[in-house]
Design brief:
The chain is mostly beta strands and 181 residues long. It has one helix and twelve strands.
């Protein structure tokens, strides 16, 4: 079920700011970070969210699975392709959700994997990346895309119902309720 303002704007967010419940950001987005395992300075193109092994990781938005498997230092990783040039990456997972494979659709909030420390990691956490048209953005600060409003084909019907309900609510606001004293 979706909810809209009287003007037809969605109250649903198109993306979750965080794809899991985590205790702290153990390493933020940075163009130059000292890597604790590799012992050199390099860009950290995502955010590390510390959480216990096995913590559920959710799809941050509706998407199609683009990659599921092992990928270098990321260890077990999932890449999701969303609309409007957005993709998200979820790394260091202990395991993937059952049945997750390339090409399937996932919904916002759907469990896609579980926190781990596969690949190059010093402890259990989720490495989360947010890319817009192939460019990395800080997942904690990026302006998240807006959810869709009522489409043009349904706008007239929506406005008719919205105006009728708004009128009824205004009438309720002016009603007086009798009370016995």
């Amino acid at each position: 079920m979706q909810y809209f303002t009287p003007e037809g704007k969605s109250l649903h967010k198109s993306f979750l700011r965080s794809p899991l419940e985590f205790t702290r950001v153990s390493s933020g987005f940075s163009v130059a970070r000292y890597h604790p395992v590799l012992q050199k300075v390099r860009a950290h193109k995502g955010v590390d969210m510390a959480a216990p092994t096995g913590t559920r990781v959710k799809a941050s938005g509706d998407a199609v699975v683009d990659f599921v498997g092992r990928k270098g230092g990321y260890g077990n990783v999932i890449v999701l392709k969303h609309n409007n040039g957005v993709s998200t990456l979820y790394g260091h997972l202990s395991r993937f959700a059952e049945g997750l494979r390339r090409g399937i659709k996932v919904s916002q909030g759907e469990i896609i994997g579980f926190v781990g420390m596969t690949g190059v990691a010093t402890g259990p956490h989720l490495h989360y990346e947010f890319l817009l048209n192939g460019q990395h953005r800080d997942p904690m600060k990026v302006a998240l895309p807006k959810a869709n409003s009522i489409d043009a084909n349904n706008k007239a019907a929506f406005d008719s119902v919205s105006n009728q309900l708004s009128s009824q609510l205004r009438l309720l606001g002016t009603s007086n309720i009798a009370a016995l004293e």
